[in-house]
Amino acid sequence: MKRLAFCAAALVIACQSTAFGQDAEAGKRIFARCSPCHAVGPNAPNKVGPELNGLFGRKAGSVPGYAYSPANLQSGITWTEEEFTAYIKDPKGVIKGTKMSFAGVKNEQEVKDLVAFLKAFDADGQPK
């Protein structure tokens, strides 16, 4: 009986860590919503929005060759998971005057997965 209870508890924990953790592969599917405007990976170009390689730890408005809005340039943001999470949920609410017209990703798990996907790329677009 103890063995059965232990196995059941282990199964619950395993399912929770998958359900509530970060899943880069799922994040890749979420990024498909972003890809019309943003790119990641080797030789990723700026599009309607800047490329997102090495996003975390980077200062907002700092990708060479991209014409940022004054609001983004003056935001003072250095992208952390927390900053990005708030921003991707409500871009215009976090940086008033941003040119990003995306309504945001509202689902917590989708945001976590998107973060995991973006964290998988270094500043040169190489997989970490």
Automatic annotation (TrEMBL):
Xref: SUPFAM superfamilies: Cytochrome c
Keyword Coiled coil in record: no
Positions of transmembrane segments: none
GO molecular function: electron transfer activity; heme binding; metal ion binding
Keywords: Electron transport, Heme, Iron, Metal-binding, Signal, Transport
Chain ranges of the Cytochrome c domain: 22-122
Signal peptide segment: 1-19
UniProt-recorded name of the protein: Cytochrome c
